From TrEMBL:
Example of a GO cellular component annotation carried by this entry: cytoplasm
Name of protein: Translin-associated factor X-interacting protein 1 N-terminal domain-containing protein
InterPro entries: TSNAXIP1_N (IPR032755)
Coiled coil: 146-187, 280-321
Keywords tagged on the record: Coiled coil
Amino acid sequence: MGDVGDFLEKWPAHALGRSFAKSNACVINNRLVSLTEVETKIPNIVPKPKFLDTIEKKICDGLKNIQSNDRDLRFQIYKEAFQSFIHEFKTYRTFLSDIYKEYEEYLSFYKAEAQKLRPVKEYLWTISQECDERILKLQKRERPELNSLKREIIRLRELVSQLKEDKVGLETQVEQLTQSIKEEHDKFRYEADAKRLLISEINAMRMQFDESEGVSKQLQSKTSRQDDPVLLKIALEQARKAQSASEFEVVQLKAEYVNVMPKSRYDALWEANSKIKNDYDMKIKENEELNESLELLKNQLNEVMKQRDQSETTVQQLQRVSTPRPEWSEVGRKLPGGLTRWLEETASMTSQEKMHFLVNQLTAQSAENIEFNLNEYIKEELNFVPSFLKTTEAEVTVSRPIHLRDCLLLTHEIWKTRKNEKDSVKEHSIGQRRRSLASRRLSQMKPQLKPSTISPNITKLFDEFLYNFFKQIYGIEQIRIEWAYGFYEMLIKEKNNYKLNELRMIIENKMDEECHWHLESWILFIKEQVLTFIDSSNNSSVIIPTTENSEQRKVILKQTLHEALLNIFSQQDLINLNIIQSAEEYASLQIKDSPAKALTNMDEGENKDNESIQTNLHNMLDFNKLFNNATDEDFNPFLKELVSIYKHLKTTFVNGIITELQKLTSDGVQSSNVTLAQVRHTIERIAPSTAVTLNVRPKSGRPITTQQQQYTLSIDIESSLEWLFRIKPSDSPSQSISLNQLTTRLEGCNLFFGN
């Protein structure tokens, strides 16, 4: 059986009547819309059947009379048109009536099902309201407890400070008591020595008394032999006198020698006093000599001051008639490469040699400006014209010159404005997501017409943003395009400046914008990891105040920085880079810097010895200066080395992707073109699951020590693939591109994973 269309008459070849429709109907967004001949601008040459023209006119008039998007009214109009078909085509009336009946029954069935789901909707809405009320009650109930905990923390801090003050007071009392104990010990020792001398003298006197008693006994024996009472009486009286005299002498010695020091100590003190007196006499003589030399120096100083005044007068006269010396640092900021490159190239030059070098630089720069043609560069290097360089005027555009420092400041302002715009869009999207649970579930029940595999880009394209940025700053179109041309020329010329080169590659669609934000987050992550390693490890750290009103400077040892970097990166990543040497050259602590205010985890010998502390300062680095990113200069040498590590890790990961894709295209089955699905499958195969998850800091607060989880920052794979397959910013992503073109674009794609 053939097709049904073979038995139908073709219109307009077999049209019986000739009539011209006054309107045309077309389908827009799955809706039938009536367009007049004036709106379509297409004259109706071919006639239509009268019945078709009547039906179309009836439908168009009905839709115009509705003036709303009510689906029931629109359905009623098309229902009446279909009933007119059934009424007019009598031969097909039965068949068309069956079709109409089936549609009506199917529609009634779905209306009944929707009516059944209405209680579920109301129940979900009630549950969501109850949940919201519970959350508010919990927050209200926990708020007093949080306030009480905060007050308790403040009270405990005050108690700790009070205990610290009490501790200092107790230490002072202990020192005073120790000193008093020493003095009492010396006093008791002197008294003990005196008592020992007194005891020795008493012993000598006792021996003398024993001898005299022996003599008296001998005399008594003699007198007893002689039996002379007179002699015995005289001897007794003499013995009593000798006894009273000796007792008086003993009492006198006790009274005199109680507070008397030993003779040896007296001799030692006498010698020390003699030495001090001699030293005092010598100091007096030296003081007299120094006074004389001071008078001579004062006279010489007066003569030198007179000579200085004469020299200042001469210098002022010379300055009036001579050319002032230039500020070479300001000159370096205006030249290509910035101040860092100027200091490297003119490190050992005299003022005359710097002037010749500056003239050569300006001559080369002017010759480069003459030879450079921006329009030819865009035609040769790019396959499109950036939006902020487009103009509607036919006149020749002259670019305005812009200095390197101004270009860097403008670049910083561009990224700052871009970040604010992305943050505002993110906050707006978060606010839209705060809907009730019932609304989200009902929106999920609706069928999706075209499921998208790539997430939509909520923010504006960077090309469009840059156009709006220059338009907002420079309101006049001619001034805007001239400054835009000058800015873009500076980006092209400064190829050694990483910040400007990165912005140029993003404008030329050679690098994804997300690479900039990912690198910025990666540097902040490395800084946090180094700080965490220092805080959690037993390493030396010094806090040095710069000025009274400025913040304190954090200083770390060079060895500590090296250990922290080894804890984050592998030895293989640091083997070919001079990151520690760059840190020493850029952020070494100078001797003229302020002395250490607080030193932790240092030996007692280092605290007591000033020379060892100064030796330590030579081995320390200014941590704040290492990660300082000036807005009017390029990255410092330390950050440049970190960027080199970032590029090396990214290149290693991208080379793995390219190797896997080359295996797919070299087996004879796959073509030379690579599809989006193949690239996604390759990334998922060679990268672990942590490549697309956020794991910035561990929950324990300690640094990550395993090599497998050293640093894993999340990236949006779908957004990166969308940029990878969009060759031009204004075009939609293509389904496949060649392998060579993919290899070139992978270098600028936001695909990074450090293993």
